[in-house]
C-alpha cells in the first residue's frame, strides 16, 4: 500500500519536530510520500527536501495559510509553490509581521490578568516563528495552566481571556498567492469549520471561482458523514482530493503521520491526478 501524508507541521511553525525529524519519523512509519505544510512559512522546506532525498522519501513542498471568506475562518493548503516567488515571499513576510504584533497583544492581555510574561520569555526561534502554541507551552511550564489544552481553553482560544483576533488574508488572496506561485490550493479540514452541507457547498463553489484545486477530504476533524459528502462533491465538481494527519507532535494531535484518526491510514486514491496537476497546475 502506498502510504501518504499531505499535512504536517515542524518547528518552523507550531510543530515540535524539525523537518529532518519529521522525515525520519515518516520513513520509520513506512510512508512513501510526505508534504510539509507549516503555517505561513516555507522556511523549513530546504531541510525537509534534503532529508527526504537522503532516505529516498518522495516529498512535496507545501504550506498552510489562514484565511477568511465572508466571515468564515478557513485554512488553505498550498502544494508545489516556487519559494522564490516575489509575491508569495512578500505576502508571507507581511503575515509574519502581523503574527508578531498579535503575540505582543496576547502577552499584554496576560499581564493585565496578573501573569508577568514577556516576549523574551518565549523560546528563541532562530529557524521558525512564534505563535499561540508557544505561548500555551510557556503558560504550562510556568504552571499558570495545567496543560497546553488548558492554556488554550482558559486564555488563548476564541472568546478566552487573552484571545486576540488575528489579521488574516481573504480566501481569494490566499488562493491567488498559492496559484500565482505555481501551486495548487486546497481547502484544509472542512470539518473544523462546523458548517452545514448547504453552507459548505456554497463556500467551496465560491473558492473554486478563485482557483481552488481540491479539498482535504481525509483529516481527523472530518466525520464519516463529512467524508462521504466531500468525496461526492469533489467527484461532481472535478476537484482533487487530499488527506493529512495534521501532525504537530503535540498532546493535542489526533493522529500520527500517515493516519487521519483512529489508526485509519490516509487513502492514496486520487494521488495520480494530484501529482499530475502538481506538474502543470494551470
Automatic annotation (TrEMBL):
Residues 4-69 form the Polymerase/histidinol phosphatase N-terminal domain. Pfam families: PHP. This is FIG00031715: Predicted metal-dependent phosphoesterases (PHP family). SUPFAM superfamilies: PHP domain-like. It comes from hydrothermal vent metagenome. GO terms for molecular function: 5'-3' DNA exonuclease activity; 5'-3' RNA exonuclease activity.
Amino acid at each position: 500500500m502506498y502510504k501518504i501524508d499531505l499535512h504536517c507541521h515542524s518547528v518552523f511553525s507550531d510543530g515540535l519536530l524539525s523537518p529532518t525529524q519529521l522525515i525520519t519519523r515518516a520513513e520509520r512509519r513506512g510512508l512513501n510520500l510526505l508534504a510539509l505544510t507549516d503555517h505561513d512559512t516555507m522556511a523549513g522546506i530546504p531541510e525537509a527536501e534534503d532529508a527526504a532525498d537522503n532516505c529516498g522519501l518522495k516529498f512535496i513542498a507545501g504550506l498552510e495559510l489562514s484565511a477568511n471568506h465572508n466571515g468564515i475562518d478557513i485554512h488553505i493548503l498550498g502544494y508545489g509553490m516556487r519559494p522564490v516567488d516575489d509575491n508569495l515571499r512578500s505576502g508571507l513576510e507581511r503575515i509574519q509581521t502581523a503574527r508578531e504584533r498579535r503575540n505582543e497583544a496576547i502577552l499584554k492581555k496576560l499581564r493585565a490578568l496578573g501573569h508577568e510574561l514577556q516576549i523574551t520569555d518565549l523560546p528563541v526561534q532562530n529557524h521558525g516563528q512564534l505563535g499561540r502554541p508557544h505561548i500555551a507551552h510557556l503558560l504550562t511550564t510556568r504552571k499558570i495552566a495545567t496543560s497546553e489544552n488548558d492554556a488554550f481553553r482558559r486564555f488563548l482560544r476564541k472568546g478566552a481571556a487573552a484571545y486576540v483576533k488575528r489579521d488574516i488574508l481573504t480566501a481569494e488572496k490566499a488562493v491567488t498567492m498559492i496559484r500565482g506561485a505555481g501551486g495548487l490550493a486546497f481547502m484544509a479540514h472542512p470539518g473544523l469549520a462546523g458548517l452545514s452541507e448547504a453552507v459548505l457547498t456554497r463556500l467551496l463553489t465560491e473558492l473554486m471561482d478563485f482557483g481552488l484545486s481540491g479539498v482535504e477530504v481525509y483529516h481527523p476533524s472530518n466525520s464519516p458523514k463529512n467524508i462521504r459528502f466531500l468525496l461526492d462533491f469533489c467527484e461532481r465538481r472535478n476537484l482533487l482530493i487530499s488527506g493529512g494527519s495534521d501532525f504537530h507532535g503535540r498532546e493535542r494531535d489526533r493522529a500520527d503521520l500517515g493516519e487521519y484518526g483512529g489508526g485509519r491510514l490516509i487513502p492514496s486514491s486520487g494521488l495520480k491526478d494530484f501529482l499530475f496537476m502538481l506538474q502543470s497546475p494551470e
